[in-house]
Design goal:
The structure is a single chain. Helices cover 80% and strands 0% of the residues. The protein has 2 domains: 57 residues; 166 residues, no CATH class. Helix 4 packs antiparallel against helix 5 and helix 4 packs parallel to helix 7. It is mainly α and 236 residues long. It is flat and about 75 Å long.
């Protein structure tokens, strides 16, 4: 099967800049060598090189991690991501104020886990937004009114009832996801508050183990929640 060109590569292939580069290369080669064949070969080489470079750049950009942006979401999903980022910021402040040593090294390890947790919260909130969008595309009240206006034997009832059932399942899953994200955010806040407290005093590094385990548990549950919602994008 032929591989489809990415939009960026396609635009580069037909862009005025590409045409100008090829034309310039052809003209320069003709001027220097006087050979039409050489000019055509150089023109083709410049064109291919331009497209390959554009494709490489497009691949590198696509591979970059997407920036976490709470304001790309609507409430309440924006709030969950924003709250996770606030917890991450408080942790970073505590880490900055901690003197180099075993305690700081342990905090750095915990910070890596926390960063993953914020990423998982962001992805779960994105899926939650897709749930909301999918539910809103089904006009439940209108379907209910239509259903109430039909006789019991009307063949259209089954289709309307199926759509209403889908709306109900989406609404239930949306509410459950909101509740789980809210609970996990609170637990993350509590753990970070404890880390901040321990970071303000010199203590046994082992004291952080319990907090690290707590954050680890929250991160695993966030990831599990995100995985359970991964089918939302296709369904939406």
């Amino acid at each position: 099967m032929a591989r489809r060109l990415e939009p960026t590569v396609l635009l580069a292939a037909i862009s005025p800049i590409t045409i100008a580069l090829v034309a310039g290369a052809v003209a320069l080669t003709l001027l220097l060598s006087g050979s039409l064949i050489a000019a055509i070969v150089v023109g083709i080489a410049v064109y291919v090189l331009r497209v390959l470079v554009s494709r490489l750049i497009a691949s590198r950009v696509a591979a970059l991690p997407r920036r976490i942006d709470p304001f790309a979401l609507r409430e309440p999903w924006r709030f969950f991501v924003r709250d996770a980022i606030r917890a991450q910021t408080r942790f970073t402040d505590a880490l900055t104020d901690t003197e180099p040593g075993p305690l700081r090294d342990r905090l750095l390890e915990i910070g890596e886990s926390l960063d993953n947790g914020v990423e998982q919260a962001w992805k779960a909130a994105q899926r939650g937004q897709q749930l909301t969008d999918a539910r809103r595309r089904i006009d439940g009240p209108r379907l209910q009114r239509q259903l109430e206006g039909l006789d019991a034997a009307d063949p259209r009832r089954s289709g309307l009832e199926a759509q209403l059932a889908t709306h109900g399942r989406l609404a239930e899953r949306e509410e459950r996801t909101q509740s789980e994200l809210e609970t996990l955010d609170v637990r993350l806040d509590e753990a970070v508050a404890r880390v901040t407290e321990l970071g303000t005093r010199a203590g046994d590094v082992a004291e952080l183990d319990e907090v690290a385990a707590s954050i680890g548990n929250v991160v695993r549950e966030l990831e599990a929640l995100r995985l359970s919602l991964d089918d939302v994008e296709g369904a939406a």
